[in-house]
Amino acid sequence: MTHPIPSVPPITEDDIADYLANSPDFFERHAQLLASVQLTSPHGNRAVSLQERQAEMLREKIKALEHRIMDMVRHGNENVVIADRLHRWTRNIMLVRSRHALPATIASEIMTQFMVPQVAIKVWDVAAPFAAEDFATGVTEDAKSFASSLTQPYCGVNSGFEAVNWLQDKAMAMSVAMLPLRADGLPSAARAFGMLVLASPDPQRFAAGMGTDFLERMADLAAAALSRLRDE
Q: What is the CATH number of the domain that holds 129?
């Protein structure tokens, strides 16, 4: 009586890959095989050698790295430009001697240094000598509560915010950035004592989801300067 020959499972591609991965000397023993291997080029349907395909892959990796480096350089240059503008803005507001002129200077310097079309600023809970100034009047309790509710700058479309009415031309405020001003800086749970409003006719200038690092620094610096208005 003959016994059935047990079936041998077929060799799979994974088996071949595992064997080659665990047999690094295979191609040393079969060097001529490397020269004869033909692969399909991603640039058309022509066949290329293994060495040429590897060279193509290496060129693609180098090109991708070059693009990443260029992006890093571009973003780095943009950050340097913004940092320079922030430095000039900070210097110019530090040179302001008149406390009455300080809010208007902060707003006008933002427009000049950062090329923001419209800027408005309101401050409340100020000392008596400044209570009648334009920058300290015309703010409702709702606007004050809204400013205090912001834990970071708001960036996005103008959804009918009351603070947009502080601008000269609210119809041209397609996107806005609203920066709460706090004595303790951002982020903080302290009640805001003012708010900066930046506006642009470009809907993408202050887009939702944009980075707010520089805006937070601007808010901190403006709040530090404007804290002088709370002293008699």
A: 3.30.450.40
